[in-house]
Specification:
The chain has one domain (70-315). By secondary structure, it is an all-alpha fold. The protein is 61% helix and 2% strand. Strands 1-2 form a two-stranded antiparallel sheet. It has helices at residues 2-9, 74-105, 112-117, 123-148, 153-157, 165-185, 195-207, 212-245, 253-269, 276-293, 297-315; strands spanning 16-18, 161-162. It contains eleven helices and two strands; from the N terminus they run αβααααβαααααα. The two termini are 24 Å apart.
Length: 325
């Protein structure tokens, strides 16, 4: 399905909605009479704190990963993945700091842990936790681009959109919720008849039981903000780091390892053991999309659709649902 959508997205009608900032392509150099034009090799001038492509890895060459995007060397890939780990840890710490400050301000510091552990915590607990994570994620993306990239986050992470991206994303998001995840958990329901109810708990933890205004605010955040932030972090920073790291494993095994590990990291980062299988599986689908399309546009719409379906099911309960944050 992704290959078919990719071919459709690459058609003549697939003009970019948001193009990556950068210099215009250089003029070609004419070869001998009757020979095709020869594009000039554009040398890259490394800047302080940024790495230069390795031998045979000049920008725009066929050997370069993700159409010349960083990380360009194995050493840079380790740096990107280390920065990602630091960003994740920093996000967790910032979430705690923000929640502590807000709890102290509204007189709930003494029972903050109990509130956070409730099935349906207060909305300020949910929003405070999300904001802390976002700061860590976005900070890691910006730092990696600045230190071991071009410094242009949009270009480095492939944050581009094309005309067909909303269609591709909506299809993948709906199929993920109503086909992929139910099939994955179907065998386990024979062993645990309450599985469907248990799988809804993380979603209710974020959105269930809130009054209309609070639910609307959280819905907007999880549908519009979360997909952009998490796709930049997981399918931009982490996936590209793994792709470069495993490049030596081969044209097939390397990408397979990269997309699989990125999906597992994505699932594990949510800290929901029961949902790990479904989150990792959909994370792998999103990683395949990012690798196949070489941009994050389809991913963002797929992620947003997946989350929107979960919110609608919470607002209008019916059937089993899963959740990606």
């Amino acid at each position: 399905m992704i290959d078919n959508l990719a071919r459709m997205a690459k058609g003549e009608g697939g003009s970019e909605i948001a193009s990556v900032a950068g210099a215009s392509p250089p003029s070609v150099i004419s070869g001998p009479a009757g020979a095709p034009p020869i594009p000039p090799r554009v040398p890259r001038v490394p800047e302080y704190g940024r790495s230069e492509p390795g031998e045979g890895e000049e920008i725009g060459s066929e050997t370069d990963v993700f159409e010349g995007r960083p990380p360009w060397t194995t050493g840079d890939s380790f740096s990107w993945l280390f920065i990602a780990a630091v960003g994740f840890i920093a996000g967790q710490f910032l979430s705690l700091v923000i929640l502590t400050i807000v709890a102290a301000a509204n007189g709930h510091l003494s029972n903050l842990s109990a509130l956070a552990a409730e099935t349906v915590p207060p909305a300020w607990v949910v929003v405070g936790g999300l904001v802390g994570l976002w700061i860590g994620f976005v900070g890691a993306v910006v730092l990696a681009s600045k230190k071991k990239g071009s410094g242009n986050v949009v270009a480095d992470m492939g944050l581009r959109f094309r005309r067909w991206d909303p269609v591709i994303g909506v299809v993948i998001g709906v199929v993920g919720q109503f086909v992929l995840l139910p099939l994955l958990y179907l065998p386990w329901e024979h062993f645990d008849p309450k599985l469907s109810h248990e799988l809804q708990e993380p979603a209710k933890h974020l959105t269930g039981g809130f009054p209309g205004v609070d639910l609307a605010v959280i819905a907007v955040l999880t549908v519009l903000v979360v997909p952009v932030v998490e796709e930049l972090f997981f399918r931009g920073l982490v996936l590209q780091g793994f792709v470069r790291l495993f490049r030596g494993a081969g044209r097939i095994l390397g990408p397979v390892l990269a997309v699989t590990l990125t999906g597992i990291v994505f699932g594990a980062a949510h800290g929901e053991l029961l949902e790990l299988l479904g989150l990792a599986a959909f994370g792998i689908v999103l990683s395949v999309m990012a690798y196949r399309f070489k941009r994050l546009g389809p991913n963002i719409f797929a992620h947003a659709t997946f989350n929107l379906v979960a919110i609608l099911v919470i607002a209008f309960p019916s059937g089993m649902i899963h959740w990606v944050r």
